[in-house]
Specification:
Layout lengths: L1 E7 L4 E7 L5 E5 L6 H11 L2 E6 L5 H4 L2 H8 L3 E3 L11 H4 L1 H4 L14 E3 L5 E4 L2 E7 L8 E5 L8 E5 L2 E2 L2 E2 L9 H12 L7 E4 L5 E2 H7 L1 H6 L14
Parallel strand pairs: 3-4, 4-5, 5-6, 10-13
Antiparallel strand pairs: 1-2, 2-3, 7-8, 8-9, 9-10, 11-12, 13-14
Length: 235
């Protein structure tokens, strides 16, 4: 499996292009604020052909480039139904003070082809198998995407703003729920193999094993005592 990733925009949101190998069809994960140019650069450099956009949630820092990318290439965008409204109206999810900062520069709305993600379904896209797990807490429609282990590669979790290296996503914006986020960590992350590579919505990559041993929120849901004061990330 081939993965190209880069941080984009005002919030340094990680956008990923995922393919069976360089030179093949790919899926774009979370093309957020100012991500379109980085996507085009990666497509040219690695000879990729995007066939779909998949979204871990609907916050504008993860979806702001969906319209130009899907429109230019005629490809669908996949999102959980509880976050679909954010594609056209991000202010409802962020509050007016945050949303208004970006309204003038964005091409808002839904692409022509929007498809719905459901819990524990498997997407067969671009020669990949992506397992969808509904993981509410950061938003009501947050999801993660899992790839299986390959002969030469560990499994990968695209965790969005559920799990970060050393932290978790914030839950204080409209639709957020801290208790639900902790339940999602327990349900989605704790059962995974330690060698699972975690590619988050913000910050560096990590592994489930590292987070299981050191992340105060995973320690909390696993029954250990969490250390206070860990900063939470995401818009």
């Amino acid at each position: 499996m081939f993965i190209a990733g880069f941080p984009a925009g005002a919030w340094g949101t990680n956008c990923y292009l995922v393919a069976p190998a360089a030179g093949e069809e790919c899926v774009i994960v979370d093309p957020g604020h100012q991500a379109a140019a980085g996507v085009e650069d990666a497509v040219r450099e690695h000879g990729l052909k995007p066939v779909a956009v998949v979204l871990t949630h609907g916050h504008i820092d993860h979806v702001a480039s969906v319209m130009p990318i899907c429109g230019a290439r005629g490809i669908p965008a996949w999102i959980h139904p509880e976050d679909r409204y954010m594609l056209a109206d991000p202010e409802k999810a962020l509050g007016r003070s945050l949303g208004a900062q970006l309204m003038g520069e964005l091409e808002l709305g839904e692409p022509d082809d929007v498809r719905i993600l459901a819990d524990r379904t498997v997407l067969d896209l671009a020669g990949l198998r992506l397992t969808v797990d509904h993981a509410p807490g950061h938003t009501g429609g947050s999801v993660t995407f899992r790839t299986p282990a390959a002969p030469d590669l560990p499994p990968v979790l695209f965790s969005g703003d559920l799990l970060f290296a050393g932290s978790v996503g914030r839950s204080d914006l409209p639709g957020g729920d801290h208790d639900a986020l902790l339940k999602s960590l327990a349900r989605v992350c704790l059962p995974l193999q330690d060698e699972t590579v975690v590619l988050s919505g913000h910050g560096p990559q990590t592994t489930i094993g590292r987070e299981r041993a050191t992340n105060p929120y995973l320690l909390q849901v696993a029954g250990a005592t969490a250390e206070p004061g860990a900063a939470r990330r995401g818009l």
